């Protein structure tokens, strides 16, 4: 199954560019880690996105786990209320590059694109 076809059934979607970059970053860590995506209070618009690598042993029974050809993306249920349908992309552009979040649940986003309100 192609990444695009698989990701259409995911609650958190990753573009091929984002997945490629995350896997590269994980390789530099030298461990088989998963990616935890979530939200926390703060930022310009009220809530900020969080992304961290963590050991798969930290996955909780209540977490949603999305598999991308063996790489796990994990999200807690409270964050998923705000993130379901999120598209995580990556650009290596000199201006505006980095990870980009397209969140269908956001009423408003800040200029940097790293925080939102819902």
TrEMBL record:
<dbReference type="InterPro" id="IPR017870">
    <property type="entry name" value="FeS_cluster_insertion_CS"/>
</dbReference>
<protein>
    <submittedName>
        <fullName>Iron-sulfur cluster assembly accessory protein</fullName>
    </submittedName>
</protein>
<dbReference type="GO" id="GO:0051537">
    <property type="term" value="F:2 iron, 2 sulfur cluster binding"/>
</dbReference>
<dbReference type="GO" id="GO:0016226">
    <property type="term" value="P:iron-sulfur cluster assembly"/>
</dbReference>
<feature type="domain" description="Core">
    <location>
        <begin position="12"/>
        <end position="114"/>
    </location>
</feature>
<dbReference type="GO" id="GO:0030674">
    <property type="term" value="F:protein-macromolecule adaptor activity"/>
</dbReference>
<dbReference type="InterPro" id="IPR016092">
    <property type="entry name" value="ATAP"/>
</dbReference>
<comment type="similarity">
    <text>Belongs to the HesB/IscA family. Ycf83 subfamily.</text>
</comment>
<dbReference type="InterPro" id="IPR031108">
    <property type="entry name" value="IscA_plant_cyanobact"/>
</dbReference>
<dbReference type="InterPro" id="IPR035903">
    <property type="entry name" value="HesB-like_dom_sf"/>
</dbReference>
<dbReference type="Pfam" id="PF01521">
    <property type="entry name" value="Fe-S_biosyn"/>
</dbReference>
<dbReference type="InterPro" id="IPR000361">
    <property type="entry name" value="ATAP_core_dom"/>
</dbReference>
């Amino acid at each position: 199954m192609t990444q695009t076809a698989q990701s259409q059934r995911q609650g958190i979607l990753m573009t091929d560019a984002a997945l490629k970059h995350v896997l590269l970053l994980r390789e530099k860590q030298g461990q088989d880690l998963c990616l935890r995506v979530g939200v926390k209070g703060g930022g310009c618009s009220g809530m900020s996105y969080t992304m961290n690598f963590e050991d798969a042993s930290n996955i909780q029974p209540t977490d949603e786990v999305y598999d991308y050809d063996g790489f796990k993306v994990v999200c807690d249920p409270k964050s998923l209320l705000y993130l379901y349908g999120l598209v995580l992309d990556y650009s290596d552009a000199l201006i505006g590059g980095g990870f980009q979040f397209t969140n269908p649940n956001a009423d408003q986003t800040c200029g940097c694109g790293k925080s939102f309100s819902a």
